[in-house]
Amino acid sequence: MAEDRCKTCSFRGNRSDSKTDILWVGLSAKKGSEEFPLSPDTNTGRIVRQIEEGLLSTSFTKTNLVQCAPVDCNNRLRYPTRNEMESCFYDFQNRLANLQPRLVLLLGLMVAQFVLGDQGIAIHKLDSEFNYDIHKWDNVEYMPIHHPSFIHIYKRKQLPFYISRVQDAISQTI
């Protein structure tokens, strides 16, 4: 059923897929922001923009593993189910093939576990000192990092350090 919906999803053909250096991958869209993943109108988007501002010669593209905003029966945003992630994964893989990023930043443990798990790579936690590992396959490097919203909510005092560590990791990779 989800596959049928995705074939007619307005987001499938509504994106530019030119090559990029860095691909940010969030978990799912927020309600009303499906067309603008990691929008600068959100706390996460503002942190992402701060990271990008330190890397001016790098091209960035943003996407979500699940393109639509998953909502519960009360119309509240919820985490996507594994089935929803699997339904959208084909579209995600096509975007990777079209964009040909040098580095894919996987935002948060759920995204990292799902995407890297497809390649048999197990991720159990992210380093509390923001030392991030690179995993490579098919000439693309994948780096799981803490989700910016996690930093904003739980580690706000470490935000400048987090931004610096992510910028450094990107600079060393590309």
Structural write-up:
This protein is α/β, with parallel strands linked by helices and 174 residues long. It has one domain (19-173): Uracil-DNA glycosylase-like domain (Uracil-DNA Glycosylase, subunit E, 3-Layer(aba) Sandwich). Helices cover 38% and strands 16% of the residues. It has 6 helices and 5 strands; from the N terminus they run αβαβαβαββαα. It has a 5-stranded mixed β-sheet with strand order 2-1-3-5-4. The longest helix has 18 residues, at 82-99. The termini are far apart.
Q: Number of folding domains?
A: 1
- Cα end-to-end separation: 39 Å
What is the mean pLDDT? 87
Which percent band covers the strand fraction?
Answer: 15-25%
Number of helices: 6
**Spans of at least 5 consecutive residues with low confidence:** 1-5
Sheet with the most strands, sense and barrel status? 5 strands, mixed
CA gyration radius, whole angstroms: 15 Å
Number of strands: 5
